[in-house]
Specification:
Elements (H helix, E strand, L loop, with lengths): L16 E2 H4 E3 L5 E10 L11 H13 L6 H5 L14 E10 L8 E8 L10 E8 L5 E8 L1 E2 L2 E5 L2 E5 L4 E10 L12 E6 L4 H15 L4 E3 L4 E5 L8 H8 L3 E2 L6 E5 L4 E4 L4 E2 L2 E5 L2 E6 L9 E2 L4 E2 L2 E6 L3 E2 H10 L4 H13 L3 E2 L1 E4 L1
Parallel strand pairs: 16-26, 20-23
Antiparallel strand pairs: 1-15, 2-12, 3-4, 3-6, 4-5, 5-11, 6-7, 7-11, 8-11, 9-10, 12-14, 13-14, 16-17, 18-24, 18-25, 19-20, 21-22
Length: about 350
């Protein structure tokens, strides 16, 4: 039985794609936000060993709400001073979020919460109102809500088993955008389109498609990733409408032939049009010969076992692809590791016409 650890993804045909699917317009970028908050409502899984900063944060929070802890009152409960509190049901956390492009005040965004102390789990906790700051130091969002964790904590006396990461979680739609990043897109006289993958051929195809759509030479290639597009006079002040029109233009993206190998999982991903020239490879008991004429040498035969000592792949034809070679290797029962080693040997011999990378 042939192992199915080997996976081949072959793209034999070229498919068109919209410009919006393979590129982005200059200015469409997200911004990272960060804040410092406290999660409460934990069942004894909060900060325990080093609670001083947690206590200080709790005291500051209470003071802002008009509640001032009284050391005398605390002493009657066996607590000498606020700094000696043991807030086992709360945890200090870093709160992060991503502000999407064109975000408006009132929009909700997802929030990530991660413990920074010795808390064992944030499960069941709730984040108290936390401001989120941008790189400019301004408050761009406020976060609050129930923390959803993916990890599990199983207590079995005398030990505790923890699976996943219960000290990190998220609050779906737990952030509310407070500020708006001003955009001047309708005032632009030109825009630049950035390809997700740099390729001169694809950039030329995008520029040609835009010029064909507009009927004039509005676009040209600046580099392998950037296409410069001038704004037509009839769209002055309505640049967003023009972008909406050109981003739905379909093009045929191109890319260099590539083979990606993951030796740990035995996975090989092969792009389209990956060809192989004439070559002969001997790997263990496997012999591979690719050429215009069949090999005149028959496989070696062992009379004692009545079996062929060598497993042979002999491909004849003017052009051979990796897909065809892999199919033939699977027929003779080659393992994923054998296939990977053979492909790497063919590449080393200069007969595999593709960029090859390993993970």
């Amino acid at each position: 039985m042939i192992s199915f650890l080997f996976t081949l993804a072959l793209y034999s045909y070229a498919f068109s794609a919209r410009i919006k699917d393979i590129a982005s317009v200059e200015g469409e970028r997200s911004n990272f936000l960060v804040g410092f908050g406290i999660v409460v409502g934990l069942r004894g899984t909060g900060d325990i060993i080093s609670p001083n900063l947690t206590v200080q944060t709790l005291v500051n929070l209470l003071q802002k709400m008009g509640v001032r802890p009284d050391p005398t009152a605390l002493k009657s409960f066996g607590i000498v001073a606020p700094r000696t509190l043991r807030p086992r049901d709360s945890a200090l956390c870093m709160v992060t979020a991503e502000l999407p492009p064109y975000a408006k005040p009132g929009m909700r965004i997802d929030v990530q919460v991660s413990a920074i102390g010795d808390a064992r789990s944030l499960r069941g906790g709730e984040l108290i109102l936390t401001p989120l700051f941008g790189p400019d130091g301004k408050i761009w969002a406020l976060a609050q809500g129930q923390v959803v964790t993916g990890g599990k904590e199983i207590t079995r006396s005398p030990s505790t088993l923890v699976g996943g990461f219960p000290t990190s979680g998220r609050i779906p739609k737990g952030g509310i955008v407070e500020g708006e990043i001003k955009t001047t897109i309708n005032e632009k006289r030109f825009v630049r389109i950035f390809l997700d993958s740099a390729d001169f051929s694809t950039a030329k195809s995008v520029a040609d498609a835009i010029n064909s759509f507009a009927g004039t030479g509005l676009a040209y290639v600046q580099d392998a990733r950037t296409i410069f597009v001038a704004i037509p006079e009839e769209f002055t002040g309505r640049v967003a409408e023009f972008i909406s029109a050109i981003e739905n233009i379909e093009v045929l993206p191109d890319a260099p032939a590539r083979v990606v190998i993951n030796e740990r999982t035995g996975t090989v991903v092969v792009g389209r049009d990956v060809g192989i020239s004439e070559v002969a490879v001997a790997h263990g008991d496997i012999v591979v010969k690719i050429g215009k004429e069949p090999s005149p040498l028959p496989p070696e035969f062992d009379a004692a076992t009545s079996k062929f000592e060598k497993r042979t792949v002999n491909i004849v034809g003017p052009a051979t692809t990796v897909d065809e070679l892999v199919r033939e290797l699977n027929k003779i029962g080659a393992s994923p590791q054998d296939i990977i080693a053979i492909l790497q040997a063919i590449k080393s011999a200069g007969a595999l016409h593709a960029h090859i990378s390993t993970q």
